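We were asked to recover a plausible sequence for a given structure. The inputs and outputs are reproduced exactly as logged, with field labels preserved.

PROBLEM: sequence recovery
POSITIONS: 176
GIVEN STRUCTURE:
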């Protein structure tokens, strides 16, 4: 379902064709990012681990890819900085009790993929999703107040939403 939605977004919504360079590169980029996010969501949900072997090469690949297609280096670096500072400070001040360092590295990747402005929507959406799911699990007695939640799952889901639908629906909701 995720890859069908990504294909619809990458090619269908923009009236692009797979045989055009821009359409092909955009589709491949979106499939790559979706693959990394799906793998990260699955590993964090099941094992509460976000693997460096997935994230670190992905950060480099995405950075180079976006430079090649003409994306703003400043936007990518600011996006990485927003994610790193937001999650890095939480990690630092909690000594790793609130979030894991995998979440910090994931936010670096997301900042490079989406840029600083989209990170301002991804972060609150991830926390909103986590809060809603926590309340549901608490109500169904599947989790306790002392249970941990894999933040990477919610960061990944929020990022998939932005990858597929963009930030426009959230801007409309907030009247921006």
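RECOVERED SEQUENCE:
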């Amino acid at each position: 379902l995720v890859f069908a939605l990504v294909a619809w977004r990458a090619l269908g919504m923009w009236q692009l064709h797979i045989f055009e360079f821009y359409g092909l590169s955009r589709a491949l980029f979106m499939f790559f990012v979706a693959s990394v996010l799906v793998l990260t969501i699955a590993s964090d949900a099941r094992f509460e681990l976000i693997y460096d072997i997935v994230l670190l090469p992905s950060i480099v690949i995405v950075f180079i890819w976006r430079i090649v297609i003409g994306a703003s280096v400043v936007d990518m670096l600011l996006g990485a900085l927003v994610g790193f500072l937001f999650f890095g400070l939480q990690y630092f001040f909690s000594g790793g009790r609130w979030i894991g360092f995998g979440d910090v590295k994931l936010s670096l990747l997301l900042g490079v993929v989406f840029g600083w402005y989209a990170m301002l929507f991804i972060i609150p959406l991830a926390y909103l999703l986590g809060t809603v799911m926590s309340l549901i699990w608490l109500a169904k007695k599947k989790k306790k107040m002392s249970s941990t939640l894999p933040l990477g799952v919610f960061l990944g889901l929020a990022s998939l939403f932005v990858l597929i639908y963009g930030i426009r629906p959230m801007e409309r909701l907030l009247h921006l």
